[in-house]
């Protein structure tokens, strides 16, 4: 069965975005891009909420084609164009977009069917609202949380609407020279 793996940046005090979704506090560099690129390369589907999907769709299909494209932009653009995208949304219900599956309505059923399909793991990159919905239904199998060395005090929380205790097993950690610490857990 395929797994859903959440990759998310967080502040030390547990926020994934500022009060208006700001992400300018996230420390990203080539070391982190290379590390995350290896995780991303092992998946054949990206899972997003509508807002994140539209943001990704506006940038990644052509990001690697620009004359000044970085190594990361080229690699992630190629991955993004190659993989299937899954969008959790009610507002796009019925949309027909090549290589895009819309999940609306019963999220348990939609994600259950997605996990049963043949293929590699499914990455959820960001998408706080959609990740909250999946957490609410205990549908995330692994977490890669990249804790940034900052306290925001207020913002969009990493964890919200969790109905019951979820036991996790620690798998790995990685300390980056930027001060970011990657923490990897799976449901136990």
Any chance you could write out the topology, listing elements then pairs?
Blueprint: E1 4-11, E2 15-17, H1 30-40, E3 43-49, H2 50-63, H3 71-82, E4 84-88, E5 100-103, H4 107-116, E6 121-125, H5 128-136, E7 142-148, E8 156-157, E9 168-175, E10 181-187
Parallel strand pairs: 1-6, 1-7, 3-4, 3-6, 4-5
Antiparallel strand pairs: 2-8, 7-10, 9-10
What would your notes on this structure say?
This protein is an alpha/beta fold and 188 residues long. The protein has 2 domains: 10-42 and 138-188, Dihydrofolate Reductase, subunit A (3-Layer(aba) Sandwich), CATH 3.40.430.10; 44-119, no CATH class. It has 5 helices and 10 strands; from the N terminus they run ββαβααββαβαββββ. The protein has helices at residues 30-40, 50-63, 71-82, 107-116, 128-136, and strands at 4-11, 15-17, 43-49, 84-88, 100-103, 121-125, 142-148, 156-157, 168-175, 181-187. The strands form 2 sheets. Strands 5-4-3-6-1-7-10-9 form an 8-stranded mixed sheet, with helices on both faces. α1 (30-40) runs parallel beside α3 (71-82) and α2 crosses α3. The longest helix is centred in the N-terminal third of the chain and has 14 residues, at 50-63. It is globular. The two termini are 15 Å apart. The mean pLDDT is 94.
